[in-house]
Structure formats: structure tokens, C-alpha cells
Amino acid sequence: MKYLIGADIGTSGTKTVLFDENLNEIASSTVEYPMYQPQNGWAEQDPEDWYNAVIKTVKTVIEKSGVKGEDIKGTGLSGQMHGLVMLDKDNKVLRPSIIWCDQRTEKECKQITELVGAERLIEITANPALTGFTASKIMWVKNNEPLLYEQCRHILLPKDYVRFMLTGEYATEVSDASGTQLLDVPNRCWSDEVLNKLGIERSLLGKVYESCDVTGYVTRKIADITGLAEGTPVVGGAGDNASAAVGTGIVNEGAAFTTIGTSGVVYVHTDKPKIDKKGRVHTFCCAVPNCWHVMGVTQAAGLSLKWFKDTLFKDIISRAEKNGADPYDEINELANSSPIGANRLIYLPYLMGERTPHLDADCRGVLFGLSASHTQGDILRAVMEGVSFSLADCKDILEEMGITANDMTACGGGSASDVWAKILADCYGCDIKRLGSAQGPALGAAILAGVGAGIFKDVRSACDRFIKPDNCIKFSPENNIKYKNIHSLYKKLYTSLKADFKQLSDLS
Length: 508
Fold this sequence. Notes:
- The chain is an alpha+beta fold.
- A hairpin with a 6-residue loop joins β18 and β19 (292-298).
- It is globular.
């Protein structure tokens, strides 16, 4: 029997899964690590935490399964996108990684737009300058830490730093590279024009591969530490959403998925690059060779619910710990006890600014309509509904672009909640399929590894063979009408508060 490993290097932790050649899960392991916020709106992580987590989880799944290292034929990496990892001449990490949800680079986004030109930037990179993307982080370091920048010899993305540590190769792949703002997305290569205008040396960047290409091989050192065989192929892999798309079978024209992880995404596969000239949604290369995807992003999806749980509802956590239960079970029960509209309570999920449909680093979270009569259940349902409204905004923009997204699959931790999945289906006005496997990104990375290792012919045939829906959440037309009325008010709130958000950010 042949085996494959998929490692998903996320924001809250790394999950590594060992699959057999029929994509049955054999063993899994997760290691969590912290995110640091040294200032309001900043977000950083230590790249060594990602590396150590991958080493530990790979070693664990091999030991748990009893599988021999030489029987593992390929490894794929999935990961959080946009993070900036800088290495010096000795390959030492120069500073904590500035990660995807960091919002410090608003000035640098304006600088990039001025240097490249707003329209030209979208033509080349398929996106406007965004605080979350890597290019603005590079410019921030150039502007604010110039001595450190002078020491930089290599720039890598989070999963690609792990790749380097596993193989010794400086490499990336098209889906993750699309989120740097340095890639010519239609042509799937680094853009010399953008690099030259921003004054970034191309030599700092790794070689760009397709997602299922072999990018390097496990070194002797890593083999000795983990139990993998020396020379095990490591494929390009993909950014978390592109990898999740493969893991959920979204690899054909018009197929779509919604993920409710730390962030939230509405993602549609396309066989040709389709670009929103207004820059409200993102067009990236996807993990299927010579294909693309268009997606809208909600910065704080599952993060919103986690924040409320950890900050305001510690009693739920305490009860769960006492009873040996999952706190989200009680959260789902409470949310389900509240009616549609959460008794006239509306939540704006802008804890970390927003990307779609509002490119606004200054907007912040809001509970609108809060009264003394509201319960924990009302607040929790309002959070789920607010995130769902934001995701519906993303879907609406895609449809405005002529992209149909009604063949919808849901993945990510939030979609495992029946109540949240039902809210989402009713907000969208379409049925939502769910998969039996919850291993979207890790499974996608393993499929890509299987293609690179020659176990599977190609990505599409592997997905068609192995990935099947487990159940379907039906939407209610009656509920959809109710949600449309609430959604209308939800959208007005941002417009009303936009100037106030800016004033708030300027307060000392």
C-alpha cells in the first residue's frame, strides 16, 4: 500500500494527515501555536512554530500509523497565505512573520498603487493593493526597518518556509504566489514590471511551480527527525483555499465552495482568468494547472465566534471542560434557540478590518441593536448571521461578474455546525453540500502530492473518483425572504458608519 501526507499550516495550528492511496484517512495530528498582536491591527507569528509543528505532526502520524517511511510516496503542503518570512544570508529568520490578517500597511498600499498605477496593478496581479497581501508587508519593512531589509536574502510564504526547511529549496507555487501581489496572475509568473517599480529584487523570491509539480525532496536531516524516507518528493501544494478546493472537489468550471475557518471565503473555480476591475474580489491561479479561481474574503469568520467564546462566554468553556464536552455544542444549541434575525440584533464582523466587499482596514466589529433583553443565544446567532451576510455579499459580487455559484459546497470548522450551515443556505438562497471528510486543505495537499508522485493521473480525475458529498442542507425560500430584509439593513450599516470608522482609527 502506498501513502501520502498532507500538512495544512494554518493560523491557529498545523494539521497533518496521513492518507492511503485511496485517500482514506489513516492518522492525523494537530499542534497549535500562538498569534501575537504587539499593536492594534498587527498580527505576527514565529515561523519556527510552523516548522516545529510540521515536524512534530509528521512524526506523530507515522508513529501512530506504523507506516514505514519508504511507503509514503509524497508530501503536500497547504497553508495560510500572504505571510512574509524573511531570511538572511545564513537562512536565519530576520523577524517575526507579518501574517495575512495584519492591517499595518495602509500607507504602503497607497504607495504601491502610486508606483504601479491602480488599473495596471489590477491588470497584472488581478487585485488592488491590499493590506493583507505580501507586497505591502515587504514595503512596510523597507520603509520602517531598512537596516533589517538590507540583510534580507530570501522572501518566502509561510508554507514555503516549511518547504525550505524540509528540502533546502527556495520555491513556491502559483496559487500562494498569487497572493503576494508580485505575480503576473494571467501568465502565472513573477511580474518583472511590478518588482522593478517597487524596487524588489527578483533574486529574493523562490522559483514558481504549478501546485502538483515536485519542488524538492526530503533531506537526510528531516528524514532522521520525522521517519520519512530521504528523497520523499515534496510537491508545490497550495494556499489554504486553493488546497481546500481540491480537497472538496471544486476543480471544474462554476463549482464553488464556502469555507468558514478563521477567515471566511466564497470561492469559484474558472477555466479562464476573470478579474473584477473594481477590485472587490480576488482572482488567483488555482491548484489545477492552467486554471484560476475567484474568491471573496471575510477577514473574521470563525474568528468572530471564537473571539466571543473566549472573551465574553467563558462560562460556556468552563461548563464544557467540567463535563468533558465541546463548548461549540452548547454554542450551537444557544444560537438555535434564537429566531431568525436574533431578535433584531445585527453583527458586523469587522474585527480585523475587511476585504470583501469593503477594502477597509479601519472598519471594526459592531453589535447593532443590542438591548437588555438580548440573551447569549441572540448574540451567538447574530454573530453567525453577520458572518453569513458578509459571505453573501461575496457571492453577490461574483454573480454580478457573471460567475454562477449555485453548485455550493461548504467546508471549514463553522460549516460543521448544522445551525450555521442552515443560516448560510438560507442567506444564500441555495442548497449547500457538505462532505463526510473534514480534511479539506490537508486532503487537497495530499491529492496534489499524489499527482506529483504519479499515483494519480491528474487533479480532476482524482477528485472525481474519491470526493463525494455526504449530505445536503436545503434552503428555505421563506427564510431566504426574511434574511434578504435583514441583509438590506446590514449593508446600510457599513455605509452609515464608514466615516466614523475612519475617525475612530485616527483617535489617539
